[in-house]
Amino acid sequence: MHEIRWHPLIKWWIIVAEHRSIRPWRPEEKKLAFTCPFCPDAPELAHLAHWDVVSLPNKYPVLLETPPEIRREGFEAYRVREASGSCRVVVETPEHEGDLYTLSLEHATRAVEVFREEYVKLSQLDYVEYVAIFRNKGKEIGVSLTHPHS
Fold first, then answer.
1. Which of 10, 23, 31, 124 is deepest in the core (most CB within 10 A)?
2. Using CA atoms, how far apart are residues 82 and 149, in angstroms rounded to an integer?
């Protein structure tokens, strides 16, 4: 199920994407074998011979370019909208540890250039009303992967 629901008590739209519960999780909290999908030898990046910053489609997006049809009609207190949009992941470095401030100025500049390129591409799509660039940082906010990415 992908949809955006109106929460009448807090008066916010809430995105619901149930498939995200199966996304990879921090290895220290899972007993299963874990391979970071953003490290250079990961299958997701095997097609790239060398990279310093890469933009990928989000494998577990909360918004979809062509979302499924909403299964039920909302009513005044419980309104529902299609979860249309686009989700990209910018991996700022092949290094598994670190942050933007640990990159060289040249490398950090390249990362910001990729943010700008993605912003321009996304903002030109008819179904995109707002582009939010944010860092996925820290387990305190629920980040499932610790590799630096936005």
1. 23
2. 27
